[in-house]
Amino acid sequence: MVLVCAGDQAYEVDLIIFDKDGTLFDFSAMWKQIFMRQVAALVELPGSQAELTNDLLTSMGVLREGDNLDPLGPLALATYEEIRVIMASVLYRHGRPWDEALRLVDSVTDTDNWPPLEELVKPVGDVAGLFAKMIEAGLRIGVVTTDERAMTETMLEMAGVRDFISAMACADDGLALKPAPDGI
C-alpha cells in the first residue's frame, strides 16, 4: 500500500483507476472529431434536412452552447455501437426507413473512414511519465472505459503505457457500463 494524500486526508492506496477518454486521452482530439465528421457526412446525404445536424448532435449529448458535451450524455457514456443506434434512430425520425438508416450509419461510421489513429490519439499531459512514477511508488493502475478493449489497448500502446496497466474493464467485457460501479 502507498500513502496518497488528497487535501488534508491521507489514504492507503493499492490501485488507482482512470477513465480513458477525457482523462488519459484528449476526448475532443479523437471522438468529438470523429463524430462531427460522421454527422457532417450524414447531413450531406441527398434528402437530408438542415435541422438533422442539430437533432443528431443533441441526441448524442452535444450541447450547442459552446459545443460542450453533456458529461452524462451518450458521447460521454455510451458505447460506439449505442451511438450508431442513436444516429440511425435520428435518421429514422427524419424519414429514412430503418434498414436504410442502419446502412447509412454503417457507411459513415466504418473505421476505415477514420483519419489515422496517430492523428487522433493525444495523451492528456505526460501520461507515461505519471504512470512510471506511480509504478515506481508501488501503485497499480487500472482503466475503466466504455470503449472496446481492442481500441483501448491500441491507444494505451500508442501512448507507451499499456505495460503499466494492471487491470482494465472495457465496454465489451460483459460488465455493466459506467457510471455503474461494476467496472471498478
Structure description:
The protein has helices at residues 27-43, 51-60, 74-77, 80-93, 98-109, 117-120, 127-137, 149-158; strands spanning 2-6, 9-13, 15-19, 62-63, 68-69, 140-144, 165-169. Helices cover 45% and strands 16% of the residues. The radius of gyration is 19 Å and the shape is elongated. Strand 6 (140-144), helix 8 (149-158) and strand 7 (165-169) form a beta-alpha-beta unit. The protein has 184 residues and is of the alpha/beta class. The model has no long low-confidence stretch (mean pLDDT 87).
Q: Find the count of extended strands (DSSP E, 2+ residues).
A: 7
The neighbouring-strand order within the major sheet is 3-6-7
Structural class: alpha/beta
Q: Separation of termini?
A: 18 Å
Helix/strand order, N-terminal first: EEEHHEEHHHHHEHE
SS strand fraction: 15-25%
Low-confidence stretches: none
Q: What overall form do the CA principal axes indicate?
A: elongated
